[in-house]
Design goal:
- It is a single chain.
- By secondary structure, the protein is of the alpha/beta class.
- Helix content is about 25%, strand content about 35%.
- It has two domains: about 80 residues, Alpha-Beta Plaits; about 150 residues, Rossmann fold, CATH 3.40.50.150.
- Strands 10-9-8-11-12-14-13 form a seven-stranded mixed beta sheet, with helices on both faces. It has a four-stranded antiparallel beta sheet with strand order 2-3-1-4.
- Strand 2 and strand 3 form a beta hairpin.
- Helix 4 packs parallel to helix 5 and helix 6 packs parallel to helix 7.
Length: about 260
């Protein structure tokens, strides 16, 4: 058994966690660092350590032997339930903590795909959904990942939730009772009342025309996954696609935009 340690920027964390799970990690712990995050992933086959260290060398990956332990339990024990916004209670699926009165329970499995709910950008999207989603809306979750935002939209009373993601791990969400497509390009024009995307700067810039195209007149988009310093770039791409900026909401160094068409 060995552990692989690497350091990354916060915006890289979810992607790296998903890749480490895909490589067969049995558990992952996180440590906050100035300006970034430290990840330690645990593996059973020590013969694979040098190859993995080379694969992740961009993040100064280093490995070391570990005594045999139930590292899955160790990693899981460090994930705590959290309350987000005024209405949501996010809890790891292996915990049975009671839901606080008045809260909507969302079970999360961080090993499944991107998103535990702990990241500021996810919290910003959940808070914006509370404000913007009206009952009976058709909602599109672009880059659904672990499905937190799609599930939140269901709980808030959306008539229909369409989830899309090109990550094959996230496609497992298609087994749940919601509509699922691979890419936003497959969505019919003017078919959604609200779109939400918690991805990253470059992807949102590239998808801006499609995010506007899928919205009905008066529709709303909630966008995050970028830092406050990047807001102007995202706003420019959305305006060029025909959207109007309704507001920006910061949390830590991250931001979420709400736009309308």
């Amino acid at each position: 058994m060995f552990s692989l340690y690497l350091e990354c920027r916060q915006e890289e964390k979810d992607q790296l966690i998903a890749e480490l799970w895909a490589r067969g990690s049995g558990g992952i712990t996180e440590t906050d660092l100035p300006g970034g995050c430290g990840l330690r992933a645990f593996f059973t086959d020590e013969a694979a350590a040098p190859a993995l260290a080379r694969e992740f060398s961009r993040w100064s990956a280093r490995w070391e032997p570990e005594e045999p332990r139930d590292w899955i339990a160790v990693a899981q024990s460090r994930l705590e339930p959290i309350c987000v916004g005024a209405r949501f209670f996010l809890v790891p699926e292996w915990r049975n903590d009671p839901t606080p009165p008045g809260r909507l329970r969302i079970q999360v499995n961080p090993g499944m795909a991107f998103g535990t709910g702990a990241h500021e950008s996810t919290q910003l999207c959940l808070e914006a959904l509370e404000r913007e989603l009206q009952p009976r809306m058709t909602v599109l979750d672009v880059g659904t990942g672990s499905g937190i935002l799609a599930r939140a939209a269901e709980l808030l009373g959306a008539r229909r939730v369409i989830a899309c993601d090109i990550d094959p791990v996230a496609v497992e969400l298609a087994r749940r009772p919601l509509s699922f497509v691979g890419t936003v390009g497959a969505i019919r024009a003017a078919s959604c009342d609200l779109a939400v995307a918690n991805i990253n700067l470059e992807t949102i810039r590239a998808l801006a025309p499609d995010l506007v195209r899928v919205l009905r007149s008066g529709g709303i988009a909630i966008l995050s996954g970028f830092e406050i310093a990047e807001v102007a770039v995202v706003e420019a791409a959305l305006r060029a696609a025909g959207a109007a900026i309704c507001g920006a909401h910061p949390k830590g160094s991250w931001s979420a935009l709400v736009v309308s068409v």
